[in-house]
Amino acid sequence: PLAAAARYEHALELVGLAAPAPPRDAARDAAAFVRLATAAPLSGGAGWVSVEVGGCAHPTVEGWWVGLYARDPSEAAPLKVRHLDASVPGFYTHGAANFTLRVTNHRVPLRLVLLRKGLFKPVVVATSERAVEFDTYGAPLGAHLSLLRGGKGLQVQWTTDHTCTSPRVRWGLSPESYDNEAAAATATYTPGDMCGSPAKDVGWVDPGLIHTAPMAGAQPGQTVYYVYGDESEGCGFGAEASYVVPPAAGATSEARLLLIADMGVTQEDGSNQFNDMPGPANVTRRLVAEAESGSFDPHALVHVGDLSYARGYGSLWDELFERVQPVATRVPYMAGIGNHERDWPGTGCYLCESRDQDSHGECGVPYEARFPMPTPARDSPWYSFDVGPVHMLVISTEHFFAAGSPQYAFVEADLKAVDRSVTPWVLFMGHRPFYVSSNNNEPHWGDTTVGIAMRKAFEGLWQEYGVDLTVAGHHHSYQRTCHATGGKCAPDGKAPVHLVIGNAGARYSPVQSPQPAVFECTHLIYGYARLRANATHLTTEAVAGSDGRVFDTLTLVKPPAAAAR
User: Fold this and answer.
1) Of 23 and 319, the one with more pLDDT
2) Are 238 and 143 in contact (CB under 8 A)?
3) Which H or E run includes 339?
4) CA quadruple 302, 308, 312, 316: dihedral positive or negative?
5) Residue 176, Cβ density class (10 Å: 0-12 exposed, 13-18 middle, ≥19 buried)
6) Separation of alpha carbons 2 and 251, rounded Å
7) Which residues contact 357 (CB under 8 A, 6 or more apart)?
8) What element of type H or E holds 538?
9) DSSP per-residue letters across 76-95
10) What pLDDT score does 561 carry?
């Protein structure tokens, strides 16, 4: 397995399936135990439990750890791992310890398992007598909003276990007063829908039922109060949430957006999970504060690919939505697809034949089920939407995009149809960057290689239809160019500025030195971007997740007459 390590970003991706302790070790391990010390079931989407371990022989050399499992350890990977090492007070001295874990509700009871012999060939020593349980698995979890097609309203999506089959949303214009109701459409996916391992086997976590319900009819600027759930026994409704309807397309209003890419999830309890990322915790807290404080009042959160970094380990989708729910139930959460959501050999995507197991068997299935974007068809994850004076076109950099492809035809028709007197600003968004300062020049899937191919496809359209700004991720950094076209700065400024915002949490990517001439700045700082636009001014601010400081600002200005350029 070590020879395969180059394919992975985190050592836990090499964890082996656990085996029972051999008989010769039974006596030595007889005293070892793991115990759930928290008596009451947990509530809601996540909670903390206390764990006790003891009787662990040779604690400094046996590679002891505790895994949290949703399935039998001989069949599945752990959801998370707590290494019993020098970071756990008392363990190396006594072979015993107490610690806490933050546990997310995955709609099934979970088991604590004590193991030794490290990650590659772990041996089960003990299992907790009591499972980690939540008081209900039918309560709505991981709720998030998104925009309906054509600006006709919003929809809310959530998950439950498989018992809740009458889901609905209720909403109105006053707190606790719901004059409207709509039934939710329900879907799910199975291991058979996945394309490969680990998504279809060791990483599989049942997603439960995924419910999506529309809320239409409220006017821009109105506050909508809503609840969602199911009255069936064992189910129930979530707490009341609210949102302000975003402004409709129009140059007389202002748009305020939060922009992120390449975020993922991290654990903050001392444990590790598959694809644990170093930067998301601070960024997520800042995003929640942006939505709750009222100082910026965003109209939408736009996530440009590489969303949860689940990459076949299904529990990370639950982890992502549990963490972003406080912001995603207040503003629409719009998402583009990235390589770690989609790419898998033989599935008809742009890079799938050359590299690519980047989705680790998911091949876009969880993305499409969990992000109901206004796309034209299944596995055609490109779309556009308007917020006030801004038109946003979201493409898939993972699908074929050259002239003659269905995606290119969509892009050309969409840009041609934009009325610049209504939406003077046009943003072009996709996961992989169009311009990038990167050392990755691999001849087919490298950052610069794909960027050149996309520029060849789209730069003519950007120039013809006056695209103002491109936004991408994939490279785990923040980068900003001059107004650039043809690989050079445009002396008259009549070309898009290109942003890379892949700095929301994933491990940093190396940048070139010296920088290519078109780049005005590059930063390895975890964070996100704010965007504010009216008819004549568009401003972006790069915000550090650690302390909220603004470390880069871009302002684009156009006179009112230029809106129709």
Assistant:
1) 319
2) yes
3) helix 339-342
4) negative
5) exposed
6) 56
7) 7, 196, 343, 344, 345
8) strand 537-544
9) S--SEEEE-STTSTTHHHHS
10) 60
pLDDT tens-digit series, residues 457-493: 999 999 999 999 999 999 999 999 999 999 999 988 8
Please count the helices (runs of H) and the strands (runs of E) in the chain: 9, 31
Residue 4 backbone phi and psi in degrees, to 5:
-90, 0
Sheet-wide strand order for 209-216: 141-147, 153-160, 209-216, 185-187
Which amino acid would we find at residue 532? R
Question: Identity (one letter) of the amino acid at 10?
Answer: H
Residue 173, burial from CB neighbour count under 10 angstroms (0-12, 13-18, 19+): middle
Digit-coded pLDDT (tens) for 93-138? 999 999 999 999 999 999 999 999 998 889 999 999 999 999 999 9
Mind listing the pLDDT tens digit for each residue in 505-522?
999 999 998 999 999 999
Long-range contacts, 346-350 (Cβ 8 Å, 24+): 346/195, 347/195, 348/379, 348/399, 349/398, 349/399, 349/400, 350/397, 350/398, 350/399, 350/400, 350/401
Query: Could you give the maximum distance between any two Cα atoms of the chain, in Å?
Result: 84
Which residues is 302 bridged to in the sheet?
259, 334
* pLDDT digits 0-9 by tens, 43-67: 999 999 999 999 999 999 999 999 9
Tokens representing residue 446 in the block: 């490298």
